Amino acid sequence: MFILSRVGRYQAFGGHLLISLCVAGLLASIVFFLWYPGALAYASGVGGIFVLLVGVDVVLGPVITLIIFNPLKKELKRDLGVVVAVQLAALLFGMYSMFVVRPVYVVFNADRFDVVYASDIGKADLRAAGVDIRWGLPMLGPEIISAKLPEDPALAQKIIEEALMTGRDIQYKPQYYLAYSDQLEMVKRQIRPVNQLEGAGFAQAGVVAALVDEYKDKNIGYIPVIARAHTVIALIDTQSAEVIMVHSLRQ
């Protein structure tokens, strides 16, 4: 209480805001560099959600401190403790909400990549793939893999029919996952020239022009990446099929 008695209301507000901004910066680095790296944040539509969940919480905590702070108040430590506890609980809930729907795989599937989220794959799917359900999904960022229909024609047809009826295509069935390196020749056959992006509805014309200019003399093409919120592209080396980057096609 001795220390708090020396602090003014606006100093308390400023200190609380600064700490909240530092915490928000740390959480942003986890979200945008680990769970939703690069263009996958835009593709998944997580930016607005993060700003809403974290931004509002970061502002409200210091504002409440500004309102209730009175160095002469006996219950000040308790009240500030409650504010901080509620603020941390809200931040943790927001982070947990983004974690359980994070991208876990970017799956090459026939002629495109599909972003698969943690919420798309259930325990039964992992059991079918023989994966330990406790550690079955990537925790530290999405992995680039591939998927291939089984050789059995009847089973392959069943998967296709299920995809048409329910929308659950092979990218949601980890028992058919393969290493990305196992499908490189198939990937090479599906790479499209970057200049084909011109006129595409999901691409900004200025960005496409810049990409064409940058890669016109290089062995770089693209394959679409289908995600929940937006379609983006994977820029790929046409000779090695290495994924160079996932590009949002936005400035």
Protein model, in words:
By secondary structure, the protein is an alpha+beta fold. It contains 9 helices and 8 strands. Strand 7 and strand 8 form a beta hairpin. The radius of gyration is 24 Å and the shape is elongated. The chain starts with a helix and ends with a strand.
Distance between the termini: 51 Å
Number of helices: 9
Number of domains: 3
Task: Let me know the largest β-sheet.
Answer: 8 strands, mixed
Instruction: Sum up the overall morphology in one term.
Output: elongated
Low-pLDDT segments, ≥5 res: none
Please provide the ordered H/E string of secondary-structure elements: HHHHHEEHEHEHEHEEE
Number of strands: 8
Average pLDDT number:
86
Q: What fraction strand? A: 15-25%
Helix content: 40-55%
Helix-strand category? alpha+beta
The radius of gyration is 24 Å
Topology:
Blueprint: H1 2-5, H2 9-35, H3 40-44, H4 46-68, H5 76-99, E1 103-109, E2 112-117, H6 123-128, E3 143-147, H7 153-166, E4 177-179, H8 184-190, E5 192-193, H9 205-215, E6 220-226, E7 231-237, E8 243-247
Parallel strand pairs: 1-3, 2-6
Antiparallel strand pairs: 1-2, 3-4, 5-6, 6-7, 7-8
Helix pairs in contact: 2-4, 4-5
